[in-house]
Amino acid sequence: xxxxxxxxxxxxxxxxxxxxxxxxxxxxxxxxxxxxxxxxxxxxxxxxxxxxxxxxxxxxxxxxxxxxxxxxxxxxxxxxxxxxxxxxxxxxxxxxxxxxxxxxxxxxxxxxxxxxxxxxxxxxxxxxxxxxxxxxxxxxxxxxxxxxxxxxxxxxxxxxxxxxxxxxxxxxxxxxxxxxxxxxxxxxxxxxxxxxxxxxxxxxxxxxxxxxxxxxxxxxxxxxxxxxxxxxxxxxxxxxxxxxxxxxxxxxxxxxxxxxxxxxxxxxxxxxxxxxxxxxxxxxxxxxxxxxxxxxxxxxxxxxxxxxxxxxxxxxxxxxxxxxxxxxxxxxxxxxxxxxxxxxxxxxxxxxxxxxxxxxxxx
Length: 363
Hints:
- The protein is mainly α.
- The protein folds into 2 domains: 1-61 and 223-363, no CATH class; 70-197.
- 70% of the residues lie in helices and 3% in strands.
- The protein is built from 13 helices and 3 strands, in the order H-H-H-H-E-E-E-H-H-H-H-H-H-H-H-H.
- It has helices at 2-27, 34-61, 64-69, 71-88, 108-127, 134-152, 156-172, 179-196, 201-209, 224-236, 261-292, 298-322, 340-361, and strands spanning 90-92, 95-100, 105-106.
- The longest helix is centred in the C-terminal third of the chain and has 32 residues, at 261-292.
């Protein structure tokens, strides 16, 4: 187990370090003056890395029993924070998802993912076999729906990730499969409501454009990102154009340092580099699965399973979007995409995973 823990941490650190280098590489080509922007860009990356490091260490050292017993208070806190975001949050690219802390932009929905997994893990551990009963599923669903509903107003991608993870965790916890027949239509209906809600016309446009993002109708509008991503992959070929030599990143691919950083990896490092990154993620998920089946404590089992599944779902969604196999959802690539809150939340998840695994191995 000790070797698996070291390898897991090494892959995590490698992905984060590679992400920092790629983000700096991309951001330096998207500012008016590279020399004038050098210090602010470095400062921003250092703040994000420091925030992530604190999150990881804090999660690794925290008492998991305290976390389990505090899950309901965490739910109340995150719901208040999500409501505050809708009221006083900062709007970017038409979405109000952030709270301005001056030294960084805080995105509460990223931490809501952690709270949702911790809450579900605590409830399923407490209820045990009773999680199969409909009334218990309804009580769980009320809390998850409250969190997801507040997030989905401005961030449908994160809401989808939480819903998917919650569903898989409930199935893992013994939920009867027939309940999926009840939940699936409700989930589809809720998704349609969020897509067609007033003021969110860009969601409909994204659904329409992803089938052919490079058509004349969409390639300069809602299909721009996915169309340029296809161009980046095609330029990269087998081995890429070399680190720092991307042409698509130069003000030609919006959000190339966040949600669409993988096409830049594909352009600069080619098919070989893209596969190498995917293999690192696959290795991480494989080791995570190994951890899951060796955990004896029920809460640790559900929590680690939830985080491993959540990260896997997010990686899959991001890769599907940048490959034009799914509508654009604004979902970043874990550990690699730019974003202080996102990197901190992923680091907190990894810290908790390693905390749970190492604490059990010491018993």
